[in-house]
Design a protein that fits this description.
Blueprint: H1 2-52, E1 54-57, E2 64-66, E3 70-80, E4 83-92, E5 97-107, E6 110-119, E7 124-131, E8 141-152
Antiparallel strand pairs: 1-8, 2-3, 3-4, 4-7, 5-6, 5-8
Amino acid sequence: MENEFEHKMKKQKQFLTFFFIVFVIACFFFYRAFSAQSKKINMLEQIVYQDVYSRIDLTKTSFQDIPKGFEIAIKNVDVHLTGIKIKGEVLNTQSVDYENLNLTIEIGQTNKDFTINKLKAGYAAEFEIYIPDIPVSQTKTAMITYNNGVIKFYR
């Protein structure tokens, strides 16, 4: 009787061990499949997102890429009245000159358009923007959007 009982227990242990191994392998494959899909989705979101918008670090003073062939450098961010004043430069990395270059900066829920009248190819132009009602605590990053500009061609 004990032999039959021990035999059944041994078979159950083997089954449970087999089931556990299959379960672990299946979980591993599902994790890898999900992880690969997740990475692809994140890459696609990043490509689409960065084509239209670019997040910049307002604490960096070096030039940072923004879409459409421009770079931006933030010189300083100061408290001013009820908001902040941002001083910086926009660099035209393209081989064409721009006039009336219109950009939008977004910090939190606040947007502010600004225009650079002339920006020659390979040169930088300074800007200064006042954004009211922004707490300094929200001034770590910003979104910069290229809206439009007139490309100047020479004959």
